[in-house]
Hints:
Layout: E1 7-13, H1 20-25, E2 33-38, H2 45-59, E3 68-72, H3 79-92, E4 97-100, H4 112-120, E5 126-130, H5 135-138, H6 143-160, E6 173-176, H7 177-182, H8 194-204, E7 209-213, H9 230-255, H10 261-285, H11 290-314, E8 319-324, E9 330-332, H12 334-340
Parallel strand pairs: 1-2, 1-4, 2-3, 5-7, 7-8
Antiparallel strand pairs: 4-6, 5-6, 8-9
Amino acid sequence: MYRGMTVAVVIPAYNEEGYVGDVIDGLPSFVDRAYVVDDGSTDGTWAEICEHAEKRNEEHVGEFDDLVVPIAHEQNRGVGGAIKTGYLRAREERIDATAVLGGDDQMDPDELQQYLDPIAEGVADYAKGNRFARPEDWAEMPRFRLIGNVILSSLTKIASGYWETMDSQNGYTAISLRALREADIEGMYEYYGYCNDLLVRLNAADLRVADVPRSSEYAYSGGWKSHIDYTEYIPRVSGMLARSFFWRLRRKYLLTSYNPIAPLYLLGSTVLGTGLLGLLTSLVRRDSDSGDWFLATVLGSLVFFYASLLDRADNSDLEVSLEQSSRGRPSLTPEQEASEEGADPSDPSENGATPAGDGQPQPGFDGDGGSPGEEPTGGTVSRSDR
């Protein structure tokens, strides 16, 4: 247990022979449960999981009979599908806080407490890493990944409503039992981009998110190399985010309660899209009405921008920014400490922040919201490349 909470870790693994065993062996002593999900691996990953699980379980004394729970997918479902399996199991067993550690050993287990603290303190329902919190960390990230991350983080801000949250691709996370119950976990995207989609679902349930400063040094050490083709990956995830964006508007601003944000977004999107299409067509044909289409494009942009301002204001209390303390542990900013002063610790049985208001083989995990073996995104990323 950690600060009165039961703690679980989900470890997704796809063809991680030689690495997933180290992750199991390195689990911190306060972890009560580890769901190690073999996502249809074709190498010796499953045998390695079972071997190391048996050893850890023999030594384990704690809240549950077994520390490590090996789970095997008969077919590959993707890293999001593997994490979803672990999340649902943790919810079933009423685990207070559930973190994610990649099966490729690219996440430092010594940092796990940083992600659990916001949940234990009732500050947030979901804590995620942020490699953009400190400028010195940007240099550690490969340039192509930095550019792709910035693009997807910007799109995720619009889709999710978490306008201050950065590094949406970061896979080092912890989630509260409350969030597992209230967010639509069953519908979570199962492939690359699952972490972006999860943010959308958390926002639709009015759950609070904390950005935890994280260095890229551990993940990108040892000659790490990625073969992900962002020319395929970004369009694919962008399409998913567009669908998730309209899902959030319908779920949050139309079905549960009416809010003019949704119709304004829809009006702006329609006018903007129509204006752009008409403008491009008129320019190609050299029609004289291009000025009218340009005006429609500008008006659509203004309406969409106004809707985004309302959306940002409506969700401003659902984001928590953490600073790095001198001990290397995140702490609340002075303003947030003042707002939280006097708040009771979260109930371990329901932990988390109080909501505002009342067939193609998919990857293992690369600690970046993706996976080492993702074929559909144009290549593979493997710990063997490091």
